[in-house]
Amino acid sequence: MSENKDPHVAQSGTSVEGVKFVYDFTEGNKDLKDLLGGKGANLAEMTNLGLPVPPGFTITTEACKVYLESGEEPAELRDEVSAHLEALEKKMGKKLGQADNPLLVSVRSGAKFSMPGMMDTVLNIGLSDKSVQGLAKQAGDDRFAWDSYRRLIQMFGKTVLGVDGELFEEALEAAKAAKKVTDDTELEAADLKKLVTKFKKIVKAEAGREFPQDPREQMDLAIRAVFDSWNGERAKLYRRQERIPHDLGTAVNVCSMVFGNLGPDSGTGVAFTRDPASGQQGVYGDYLQNAQGEDVVAGIRNTVPLAELEKIDKKSYDQLMQIMETLENHYKDLCDIEFTIERGQLWMLQTRVGKRTAGAAFRIATQLVDQGLIDEAEALTRVNGAQLAQLMFPRFDESAKVEQIGRGIAASPGAAVGKAVFDSYTAVKWSRSGEKVILIRRETNPDDLDGMIAAEGILTSRGGKTSHAAVVARGMGKTCVCGAEELEVDTKRRRMTVPGGHVVEEGDVISIDGSSGKVYLGEVPVVPSPVVEYFEGRMHPGADDADELVEAVHRMMSFADRKRRLRVRANADNAEDALRARRFGAQGIGLCRTEHMFLGDRRELVERLILADTEEEREESLKALLPLQKQDFVELFEAMDGLPVTIRLLDPPLHEFLPDITELSVRVALAEARQEPHENDLRLLQAVHRLHEQNPMLGLRGVRLGLVIPGLFTMQVRAIAEAAAERRNAKGDPRAEIMIPLVGTVQELEIVREEADKVIAEVEAAAGVSLKLAIGTMIELPRAALTAGQIAEAAEFFSFGTNDLTQTVWGFSRDDVEASFFTAYLEKGIFGVSPFETIDKDGVGSLVKLAAKAGRETRPDLKLGVCGEHGGDPESVHFFHEVGLDYVSCSPFRIPVARLEAGRAAVTSQGSDHR
Questions:
Q1: In angstroms, rounded to a whole number, what is the distance separating the alpha carbons of residues 484 and 565?
Q2: Which end of the chain is more exposed for a tag (fewer CB within 10 A), N or C?
């Protein structure tokens, strides 16, 4: 762009032939978000709809990618921008920054996915010492012109030149103090003119250069600053939090300015076509008279509700209501709208599909189905498992004795309790030390993002439902209360004063209710969510007292269950968990870990087994364990009657059933010193030393135990078979599946299977029943995945143990790495998310895909499932659907999430044109 080599002046160089880098608003549409970003695509769409959009053009994400890769804008970009700027000037009848009749433009970021406040925007580009006079004459308002100029220098200085924004804020506060006023709007033209001079001095001192007077230089530098902001720390942090890819780049929108700060007949606002907190239809949003752009979302001045606009400017209000209806019907979803009124003329500055709370998402999806705007399949794409999980969190107990100290705007629901902190640094520091915190600010800004992520909830004394705090909190699913005006927040003294004079100091515990906006002193007890009560069967949809949210969740779950192909099972080790899982919709048990049955009061029997010196002692221990194991399975089969129950034979290393080596050594040493009897402890210590392994998770465990400890696996198989036979003879329908863990070669499975088949045949003959017990294996080692075709010859099913498979593929010890270096890996972008949380599709996922394909080639009717924690992870569920697994299995509380995501996976895989 500019040829000047000043580091603050944009350069150009890299040539990309045949690529169009700039689109007029009349050329795009809402489907070009990859190229034009969300903001640019929707500005184009509104232009196409004939809505009042200020003319402008969009610089594409492709231009940004070239810049980020090479450090220079594409060589063609300057000429394209010049051509579009010339066309814009012709359309508007004025030139950028000319002295007598200046055209002013905004330069705004706009990525494919909404990243509110995370990237940069500069308004009033084109103002200078000369053109400010022309703007004053053009508007007939000196104050407006100088207010606009001071805003440009302030925004440009901070955003483009890297000046500390606090310096401008301090100068502004000083000007108000000198005038003895509290509001920016009370400063007069002469005051603002002095402020402009002060601001320019700050720029010169801090940036080492004068504020640029050339309007084109201003625009070029602002465009570059927006490109750079894609890789700003707060933008990268937000993308990691929201799992937005880092290689998309941002578009840049250059839009002719319209002014909401021209007096009482002007203003700016944000509107929602439905309440983003509850989903209810109505008039929702905020309006601020005599204000510009960022004033509303920044929360620095308290707004009035959008409904008040009807009294202030009925013509604009009626037109806005009509436009909102048009946009919602067109996008078929909740729309978030930014608008400006310039002396009675309404202008649309942005629309996007609005962020919403989890409850609002479910309500809105069902409302739109009822209105005929979308079908059930599309409704499933409008909600997700993470939102459903939020709705299952507990709520505050309204019947508890509480001390309410304030109330604000219910911006993002939830029940958050924590220690009060007054800056992001402290929030992060305390959170990393294990403390739960509530971040309290007068208003948040994008620099507070890391503190918002660390906090349990956010409380502000300014702003409304459209403020930065509210929008970002809703997007993250964080509890948030905004605009609690009666609370006086003093961030410098780290305290908050509440009505009546009570002071909340940093470290004091408070509770905030994002559903009601109430703020309480101390910790408020919680009660179960009505959504959990619904899944537990304690709240029934359609009943007179049924929660409206429960109705919406019930309908969406019904949609998902009708659409999904994947079945959902539970990881459950006892009858109580199995019954709960069944209430939550489990279609069987995908993993019963038998080692959990060996703990508690049975540990002594296991110790005797481990310490056995003779075959007789070992058989005696196994004989004592058999009836206990059998009863475990009887109860489990009764709870899951008619549904499959996959039982994993003993998996962990035997040392896990023995006392800790340090604790035991101390016991033995003390007993010897006191000359007390300690023969048993001594034998245990010797056994611990004998069984000690440098890396026990890769040692004597799983199938290896069954092969080297005679009778261990056959005892468990007999217990399963006898329990199934007893249940069958009691007219039940047990459907047991026996799973052999940690198999690495087919020979291991063949040996164990041969012994198991003999035991099962003996039990069948003795009980006079046919059990049809399936025998399969866990695929949790890379070799098992790579030789799955061979292993399938001896297995009737595979269950992917993705926890261990992830450990062995990556070479990670889960118990160690998550605490030691995962935080650094996430911060550096090596991981977008922990591979133990969401399956690593490229590595671990490739082995799952390969094993599934090879196994089915050998045995076409091979049943395939997954029982690692990934079975309840929303993103992973979609992957398992894609690779053709039959079921996922997860903990009982994650079953509803897995059911919902399985339905969503089925819908999206059909290739429908869903958002």
A1: 47
A2: C
Nearest to 57 by CA among 20, 86, 92, 84: 84
pLDDT bracket for residue 10 (50, 70, 90): very low
CA 659 to each of CA 234, 701, 821, 848, 855: distance values in angstroms, whole numbers, following the listed order: 48, 18, 30, 36, 40
Q: How many CB atoms sit inside 10 A of residue 600's CB?
A: 8
Q: Which two tokens stand for residue 203?
A: 């720029």
* Residue 599 DSSP label: S
Model pTM score: 0.80
CA-wise closest residue to 733 among 588, 606, 895, 858: 588
Backbone φ, ψ for residue 452 (5° rounding):
-65, -40
Cα distances from 769 to residues 492, 628, 647, 726, in angstroms, run: 78, 22, 20, 9
Does the active-site annotation cover 592?
no
pLDDT of residue 395: 82
64, 84, 468, 592: which is the annotated catalytic residue?
Answer: 468
SS3 75: coil
Say if CB 775 and CB 740 are below 8 A apart: yes
> What's the token pair of residue 898?
């897995």
Evaluate whether 353 touches 333 at the Cβ level (below 8 Å).
yes
With tokens 């890789």, the residue in question is 231
Are 99 and 134 in contact by the 8 Å Cβ rule? The answer is yes
Q: Which two tokens stand for residue 723?
A: 């329990």
Distances in Å between the alpha carbon of 896 and those of 388, 799, 886? 8, 20, 17
Q: Given this model, what pLDDT does residue 8 score?
A: 40
When pLDDT is averaged across residues 545-553 and rounded to a whole number, the result is 83
**Gap between the Cα atoms of 897 and 871, Å rounded:** 10
Q: List the one residue out of 462, 426, 174 whose CA is nearest residue 295.
A: 462
C-alpha to C-alpha distance for 576 and 578, rounded to whole angstroms: 5
Q: To which residue do tokens 């080790």 refer? A: 573
87 φ/ψ angles, rounded to the nearest 5 degrees: -65, -40
The pLDDT assigned to 915 comes to: 34
User: How far apart (Å, rounded) are the C-alpha atoms in residues 561 and 355?
Assistant: 26
Angle of helix 77-92 versus helix 215-229 axis, rounded to 10: 120
Residue 867 annotated as catalytic: yes
| Identity at 321, one-letter amino acid code | M
Report the phi/psi class of residue 59: left, alpha or beta, with left for phi > 0 and alpha for psi in -120 to 50: beta
**d(C-alpha 763, C-alpha 761), whole Å:** 5
Angstrom distances, CA of residue 356 to CA of 383, 467, 754? 10, 13, 57
Q: What type of residue sits at position 87?
A: A
Q: CB within 8 A of 450, min separation 6: which ones?
A: 234, 237, 424, 427, 428
CB 382, CB 398: distance < 8 Å: no
Q: What's the pLDDT score for residue 3?
A: 39
Residue 2: pLDDT band (50, 70, 90) is very low
- Distances, alpha carbon 723 to alpha carbons 569, 646, 867, in Å: 21, 14, 23
- Is the pLDDT at 67 greater than 90? The verdict is yes
Cβ pair 108, 85 in contact under 8 A: no
| Catalytic residue, candidates 867, 870, 878, 881 | 867
- The one-character DSSP state at 520 is E
Spatial distance between the Cα atoms of 324 and 337, rounded to a whole number of angstroms: 8
For 314, the token pair is 């009925």
pLDDT > 70? residue 574: yes
Residue whose entry in the numeric block shows the structure tokens 């400017």: 313
